């Protein structure tokens, strides 16, 4: 099992290598891949050193699986070349997510859709993954009509430049800016670029990807995505209107029984999810589960996850694990 990690020297790429090692993914040969400026650099994986190679070399090595986290342009240009060479690509960028012939996968929800013919598989956006993981079992039982989501997103979603900006601002030193404004002691109501409708790309990803993953275009979704000076993970306040009524204790039970979800919901002991505790973990944490008393059949929840792990690297590797376990690569 030859596995290429494209973008191995980036923030998500480094977490991918960590998760591959932790989960003991069956690799016989690791191929770390990065841009030309990183070629020849050494990375360590499971105590062994590997030299970073370029994309052309990686394609010629014909890995069984290529895990991509190198940005949309790289994915659009190179994923088809890997696929043509017989490699199954699992792509973490937004490049392929909304292509009609590409599957958008959260393994706990829709991995069963995958076949041997799927040579380019899309990994959803980090903020979408954590939300749909909690909503999918509730949609099955109560049928979702509308979702209102406000996100509080970690700077790690922007990348290493944003982490550096926050550290510089903490220290009171000037440096390169990842954002138009300071992020220290601030909240920026813009994640990604604005689209023509006044929403950001991040907000529209929550709309479009949710409908695609849950296979239901009738679900109305509206989102506001905010960047906050947090390193540990993304948090989301989610308001969900169902077609039918529900019992809050049943909701807790359904979520408690859902693989990948940890319910932290006890106001008596001040137990609720926070990025501080989600950091470095693969689960999605759900709490503050309560009825919206302003209208019928509506629920409020607070959902937190580490955006670099379940929101990116871990979900990608879980897709790869499914492919291997089911003989699809």
From TrEMBL:
It catalyses: L-aspartate 4-semialdehyde + phosphate + NADP(+) = 4-phospho-L-aspartate + NADPH + H(+). NADP(+) binds at residues 9-12, 37-38, 307. Phosphate binds at residue 97. GO terms for molecular function: aspartate-semialdehyde dehydrogenase activity; NAD binding; NADP binding; protein dimerization activity. It is an enzyme of class 1 (oxidoreductase). The active site is at residues 126, 234. The keyword Amino-acid biosynthesis applies. Pathway: Amino-acid biosynthesis; L-methionine biosynthesis via de novo pathway; L-homoserine from L-aspartate: step 2/3; Amino-acid biosynthesis; L-lysine biosynthesis via DAP pathway; (S)-tetrahydrodipicolinate from L-aspartate: step 2/4; Amino-acid biosynthesis; L-threonine biosynthesis; L-threonine from L-aspartate: step 2/5. CDD domains: ASADH_C_bac_euk_like (cd18131), VcASADH2_like_N (cd02316). InterPro entries: Asp_semialdehyde_DH, Asp_semialdehyde_DH_beta, NAD(P)-bd_dom_sf, Semialdehyde_DH_NAD-bd, Semialdhyde_DH_dimer_dom. Pfam families: Semialdhyde_dh, Semialdhyde_dhC. Keywords: Amino-acid biosynthesis, Diaminopimelate biosynthesis, Lysine biosynthesis, Methionine biosynthesis, NADP, Oxidoreductase, Threonine biosynthesis. Substrate binds at residues 153, 227. GO terms for biological process: 'de novo' L-methionine biosynthetic process; diaminopimelate biosynthetic process; isoleucine biosynthetic process; lysine biosynthetic process via diaminopimelate; threonine biosynthetic process. The keyword Oxidoreductase applies. Homodimer. Belongs to the aspartate-semialdehyde dehydrogenase family. This is Aspartate-semialdehyde dehydrogenase. It comes from Flavobacterium endophyticum. The lineage of its organism: Bacteria, Pseudomonadati, Bacteroidota, Flavobacteriia, Flavobacteriales. The gene is asd.
């Amino acid at each position: 099992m030859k596995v290429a990690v494209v973008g191995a020297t980036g923030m998500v790429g480094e977490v991918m290598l960590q998760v591959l090692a932790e989960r003991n993914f069956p690799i016989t040969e690791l191929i770390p891949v990065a841009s030309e400026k990183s070629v020849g650099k050494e990375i360590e994986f499971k105590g062994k050193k590997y030299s970073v190679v370029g994309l052309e070399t990686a394609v010629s090595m014909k890995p069984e699986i290529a895990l991509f986290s190198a940005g949309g342009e790289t994915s659009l240009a190179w994923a088809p070349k890997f696929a043509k060479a017989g490699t199954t690509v699992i792509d973490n960028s937004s490049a392929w997510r909304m292509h009609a012939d590409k599957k958008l996968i959260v393994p706990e929800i829709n991995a069963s859709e995958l076949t041997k013919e799927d040579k380019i598989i899309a990994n959803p956006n980090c903020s979408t993954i954590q939300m749909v993981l909690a909503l999918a079992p509730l949609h099955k039982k109560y049928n979702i009509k509308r979702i209102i989501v406000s996100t509080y997103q970690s700077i790690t979603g922007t990348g290493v430049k944003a982490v550096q900006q926050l550290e510089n601002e903490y220290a009171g030193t000037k440096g390169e800016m990842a954002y138009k404004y300071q992020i220290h002691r601030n909240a920026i109501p813009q994640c990604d670029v604005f689209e023509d409708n006044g929403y950001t790309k991040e907000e529209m990803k929550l709309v479009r990807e949710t409908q695609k993953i849950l296979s239901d275009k009738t679900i109305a979704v509206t989102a506001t995505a905010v960047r906050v000076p947090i390193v540990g993970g993304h948090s989301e306040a989610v308001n969900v209107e169902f077609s039918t009524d529900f019992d809050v204790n049943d909701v807790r039970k359904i979520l408690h029984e859902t693989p990948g979800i940890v319910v932290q919901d006890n106001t008596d002991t001040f137990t609720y999810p926070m990025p501080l505790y989600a950091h470095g973990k693969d689960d999605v944490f759900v709490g503050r589960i309560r009825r919206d008393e302003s209208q019928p059949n509506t629920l409020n929840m607070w959902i937190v996850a580490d955006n670099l792990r379940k929101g990116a690297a871990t979900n990608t590797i879980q897709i790869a694990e499914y492919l291997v376990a089911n003989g699809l690569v």
